[in-house]
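Priority: medium. Attachment 1 of 2:
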């Protein structure tokens, strides 16, 4: 799971619930859309806080940035029904969020969020100005990660979220030790896990194990694409993402010093690469369509 470096929103950023045709979603919203608007989609067991360190540097570069808790994640909530978390349902949520924000949106999906973002673009690319796939690959996660993910899914069938949390901590490798992590962040990670809807974790976990290769279909969509990752990745090997970028004819960025969560681990470098890509996209200044008000309460 991604670990935000801090939890305090930057000046001018706000937390609220974004109203859409498919319900309300908890978001962090920062910046003004002078150069465009971006929608940031978190990964498996993640949340909008995974992008908190990107808000200020992207806002400084002229972008409105909206990071979202998906259905069943953290502060958004959702039903105790596995069918609600099918990939096509989550993709339609992204399309509804983009419609609520207005204009053409730079879509960013991290890890599992990259697979959902891809599904949304394949269903309807018209709301989007570009797609950035961050630390996400062409198909299912690496075989080395299957055992841990299957164990998590099996545990959630018989155990409560707190018991599973304790078991996961015992299975963490030594390098995942929380020493050096601020106490508030450690408490947040625990609280976020408990707030996730178990059915959402189960369904998205299964999807990570079976996701098909849809790169050729995505390559056929005439949308600017960017594949961004760290130097090391445990979920999808970096060479696999290199090859995916080649197949997509996408811009490729490898953030030095980062692993699976470059937005949290190297936010300034990651923001610079994202903004440079967006500035190069056709129609980049159309963050909000003419005559379409941005959905920003207050």
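Attachment 2 of 2:
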């Amino acid at each position: 799971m991604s670990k935000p470096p801090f939890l305090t929103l930057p000046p001018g950023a706000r937390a609220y619930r974004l109203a859409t045709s498919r319900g309300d979603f908890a978001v962090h919203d920062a910046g003004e859309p002078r150069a465009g608007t971006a929608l940031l989609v978190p990964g498996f067991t993640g949340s909008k806080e995974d992008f908190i360190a990107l808000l200020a540097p992207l806002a400084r570069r002229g972008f409105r940035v909206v990071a979202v808790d998906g259905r069943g994640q953290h502060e958004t909530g959702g039903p105790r029904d596995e069918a609600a978390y099918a990939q096509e349902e989550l993709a339609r949520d992204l399309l509804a969020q983009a419609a609520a924000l207005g204009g053409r949106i730079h879509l960013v999906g991290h890890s599992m969020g990259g697979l959902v973002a891809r599904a949304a673009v394949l269903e309807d690319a018209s709301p989007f100005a570009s797609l950035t796939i961050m630390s996400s690959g062409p198909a299912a996660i690496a075989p080395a990660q299957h055992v841990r993910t299957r164990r998590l899914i099996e545990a959630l069938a018989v155990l409560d979220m707190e018991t599973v949390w304790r078991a996961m901590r015992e299975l963490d490798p030594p390098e995942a030790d929380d020493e050096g992590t601020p106490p508030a962040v450690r408490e947040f990670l625990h609280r976020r896990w408990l707030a996730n809807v178990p059915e959402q974790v189960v369904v998205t976990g299964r999807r990570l194990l079976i996701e098909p290769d849809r790169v050729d279909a995505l390559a056929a969509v005439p949308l600017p694409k960017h594949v961004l990752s760290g130097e090391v990745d445990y979920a999808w090997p970096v060479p696999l993402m290199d090859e995916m970028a080649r197949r997509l004819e996408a811009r490729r960025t490898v953030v030095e010093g980062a692993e699976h969560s470059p937005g949290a681990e190297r936010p300034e470098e990651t923001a610079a690469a994202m903004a440079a890509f967006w500035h190069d996209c056709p129609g980049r200044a159309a963050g909000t369509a003419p005559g379409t008000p941005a959905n920003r309460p207050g």
